[in-house]
Amino acid sequence: MIRALTGADLSAYRAMWLDGLRRTPDAFLLTEAEAVGMTDAQLIARLEQGTIFGAFVQDQLVGMIALSRGGPERLRHMGDLGPLYVHPSAQGRGLGRALMQVAEQAARDMGLLQVELCVDATNHGAIGLYKSCGFVQIGLRPRSVIVNGTPRDDLLMLKQLDHA
Question: Which contiguous run of DSSP H or E holds residue 98?
């Protein structure tokens, strides 16, 4: 089952996010220290927006994806996806694709014309998933992030929702 997360999911969401940061720090923008520093109130406010979706197996949160709409008026037609994370115990079941589809439908329901994402250039599994979901690479951001002193490049990917 996939559904929008709420403030009631705070503990499970925080645990899932921290698990992802520890296992795959290259896949997240924030560091573990930054995530730990976020207050419950900040996370609950984000969860209550209804744009973070969770995949559940037997009432256990095993995956998540976030959708963020552009803030300024001139960017309100687009959204950003990510992070997407599926716990290793639940990978290989199509949950990543299902989470992508739910987030895409939410973007359409919000009237967004396109969604974008960034992905580490070496994360071939995620890149393959995104391409199979209709995303195309629109650029490369060299040294997009520096993880443990090592610069990492990100691919910028986009899907136009009004052309599908």
Answer: helix 95-109
